[in-house]
């Protein structure tokens, strides 16, 4: 019995941080590492997305466009490609739009610059024959007569191939916008025909406007957006000091920013700075005088019914 060793039992009390709570910090650390991995993965993806896509995302989340209404739906697929139709986004998402909006530019000015960019990129050969200006509720695109690129033959309402090309590009640019559209025709002051002619500059300007309207509808402008087709003859010359100047022969396409208003007439804004591209400001015409006007019915979108024709 003397050789038997005593058994010593030792109790050790663990601190308050032991037990089943001892690994809680690992969960928090794992969450942190996961969040950091997601952050750096996002940075890597954004670095590989083209600048154009970044700009589209920025505009989308700012809920801004050059037209009134909700932003267009847009989802991003693999590789940063948009799942929605990119052609639909082109007219309202332009390079530098966010910067222009931040500078306090109006919708008219933004749309004007977008149209100018469209002409520079797709209609460069017609730069001298196309003028863009703004008014209180929208933008006006004027197609002038040019010696090298006439849009209409002299004394004719027949469109040339150059006019069809220009109208096609304009229609493709604005066809997905809700803006109302008006088309106006103008002539110079040179009398058409003899003194007893039944077909005058009034009929010619109206026919040219309607011919342009048909081409716009052919390339995607819905007939219900056409609120006015008018002929002004020589009452609103572009070159005020020379009413017979050939550049007074022109067709104007007007885009109205507020689709809820049907304008009675376009008045030049008195508080805007003059456009350096404009030769002379257009005179203001009374709402119901000095023009030949007819409404366009949606049922007449592919016909010339309703045009003023020379009397026999």
Structure description:
- The protein contains seven helices and six strands.
- It is α+β, with helices and mostly antiparallel strands and 312 residues long.
- Strands 1-2-5-3-4-6 form a six-stranded mixed β-sheet.
- The chain has two domains: 27-87, no CATH class; 107-300, 2-Layer Sandwich (60s Ribosomal Protein L30, Chain: A), CATH 3.30.1330.
- Helix 6 packs across helix 7 (201-218).
- The chain is rod-shaped and about 150 Å long.
- Helix 7 (201-218) links the parallel strand 3 and strand 4 (226-231).
- CATH architectural label of the largest domain: 2-Layer Sandwich
| Overall number of domains | 2
Strand arrangement, major sheet: 1-2-5-3-4-6
How many distinct beta strands?
6
Choose one word for the global shape: rod-shaped
The CATH H-level superfamily of the largest domain is OmpA-like domain
| Helix-strand string | HHHHHEEHEHEEE
Short description:
Helix content is 30%, strand content 12%. The protein has 312 residues and is an alpha+beta fold. It has 2 domains: 27-87, no CATH class; 107-300, OmpA-like domain (60s Ribosomal Protein L30, Chain: A, 2-Layer Sandwich), CATH 3.30.1330.
What secondary-structure arrangement, pairings included, does this model have?
Elements: H1 24-48, H2 51-61, H3 86-89, H4 97-102, H5 107-122, E1 130-135, E2 138-144, H6 161-174, E3 180-186, H7 201-218, E4 226-231, E5 250-256, E6 292-294
Parallel strand pairs: 3-4
Antiparallel strand pairs: 1-2, 2-5, 3-5, 4-6
Helix pairs in contact: 6-7
């Amino acid at each position: 019995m003397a050789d038997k060793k005593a058994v010593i039992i030792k109790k050790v009390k663990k601190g308050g941080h032991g037990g089943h709570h001892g690994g809680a910090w690992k969960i928090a650390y794992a969450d942190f590492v996961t969040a950091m991995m997601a952050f750096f993965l996002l940075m890597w993806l954004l670095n590989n997305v083209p600048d154009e896509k970044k700009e589209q995302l920025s505009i989308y989340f700012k809920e801004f466009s050059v037209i009134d209404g909700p932003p267009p739906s847009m989802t991003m697929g693999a590789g940063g490609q948009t799942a929605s139709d990119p052609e639909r986004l082109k007219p309202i998402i332009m390079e530098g739009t966010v910067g222009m909006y931040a500078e306090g530019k109006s919708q008219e000015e933004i749309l004007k610059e977008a149209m100018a960019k469209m002409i520079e990129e797709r209609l460069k050969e017609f730069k001298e024959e196309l003028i863009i200006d703004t008014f209180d509720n929208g933008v006006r695109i004027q197609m002038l007569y040019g010696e090298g690129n006439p849009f209409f033959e002299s004394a004719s309402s027949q469109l040339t191939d150059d006019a069809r090309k220009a109208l096609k590009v304009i229609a493709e640019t604005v066809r997905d916008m809700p803006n109302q559209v008006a088309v106006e025709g103008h002539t110079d002051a040179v009398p058409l025909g003899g003194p007893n002619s039944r077909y005058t500059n009034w009929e010619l300007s109206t026919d040219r406007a309607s011919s342009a309207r048909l081409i716009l509808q052919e390339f995607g402008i819905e007939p219900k957006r056409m609120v006015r087709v008018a002929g002004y003859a020589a009452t609103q010359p572009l070159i005020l000091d020379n009413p017979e100047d050939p550049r007074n022969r022109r067709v104007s396409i007007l885009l109205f920013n507020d689709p809820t208003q049907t304008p009675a007439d376009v008045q030049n804004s008195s508080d805007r700075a003059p456009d350096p591209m404009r030769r002379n400001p257009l005179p203001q015409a009374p709402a119901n005088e000095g023009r030949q006007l007819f409404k366009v019915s949606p049922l007449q979108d592919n016909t010339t019914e309703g045009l003023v024709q020379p009397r026999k």
